[in-house]
Write a structure and sequence with these properties.
- By secondary structure, this protein is mainly alpha-helical.
- It has helices at residues 2-9, 12-19, 31-39, 42-47, 61-70, 85-127, and strands at 22-24, 27-29.
């Protein structure tokens, strides 16, 4: 009863993340899923300022849904009247660079998902 109450108290995203890993006969299962979530997190990749983007590929519907939830990004700019002209220009430049990176990410996403749909089509006969 207490375990259920504690479980319901947690944020749903924590529950979903925890659901991809299980302990079975004393062995932690789902570690690869957790690594995939970590490596394919768009927000952390964006913050790391990498020149590449890692996308995930899975047939596990629960994991795919979780990855879709976790792989989003947003950014904003905060301008204050106390900002010096130099600070304002720095913030504006960073925002413009982030917008350009997002455009590049979107272009890469379109290329990858075009190829990914062909990949899934090629695999369809094996699962029919």
């Amino acid at each position: 009863m207490l375990k259920t109450k504690i479980k319901n108290f947690r944020d749903s995203s924590i529950n979903k993340t925890a659901s991809v890993s299980k302990i079975w006969k004393g062995i932690l299962k789902g570690l690869a899923d957790i690594e995939m979530i970590q490596y394919c997190n768009i927000s952390s990749q964006f913050a790391a300022r990498r020149n590449y983007t890692l996308y995930s590929l899975t047939f596990d519907k629960k994991l795919a849904h979780l990855l879709q939830e976790r792989t989003s990004i947003s950014f904003s700019i905060q301008i204050s009247r106390e900002d010096s002209p130099e600070k304002f220009e720095e913030k504006k430049t960073n925002f413009t660079e982030n917008c350009n990176k997002m455009e590049l990410i979107e272009q890469n996403r379109k290329k990858i998902f075009g190829k990914l749909s062909c990949f899934y089509e090629d695999l369809t006969p094996f699962f029919s």
